[in-house]
Amino acid sequence: MVCVFVLILFLFSPISLGIVQCEGCSNESIALAGQLCRLDIVSLALVFVGLGVGFFALFGFGTIKEDVLNSAKKAAIEAVRIELKAEVERAHANHISALETSERTRAGSTGNLEDL
């Protein structure tokens, strides 16, 4: 609401409407704004704009940070699952190989020292 009021006030200023007659005022816009008490309105508008930008920046940073953390967590869990699955398959293959070697050793062994 304040932004609309400020926009209307700047679009239809007293000088452009002919309410205030001043020949040298176009070069001294800050001085004119101070004399017409519009400098306070400009300052107030800039404060609200600054607060809005700051709020949205903090809110946006928090949202992006949360999304990045969730994505990183999902990627890490998926990487651990893949690595764990590969490790379990290697351990299973090594265990099967060890069992087959053990069975072959038992089957061919006579209990003598020469069999080793």
Short description:
Helix content is 79%, strand content 0%.
Defining traits:
116 residues; mainly alpha; 4 helices; 79% helix
What does this structure look like?
With 116 residues, the chain is mostly helical. It has helices at residues 2-11, 14-17, 29-35, 38-108.
Q: What profile does the largest beta sheet have? A: none
Q: What general outline do the C-alpha atoms trace? A: rod-shaped
**How large is the radius of gyration?**
40 Å
What sequence of helices (H) and strands (E) makes up the elements? HHHH
Low-confidence residue ranges: none
Q: What average pLDDT do the residues reach? A: 76
Number of domains: 1
* Number of distinct helices: 4
Q: Could you give the distance between the termini?
A: 94 Å
Q: What is the helix fraction of residues, given as a range?
A: over 70%
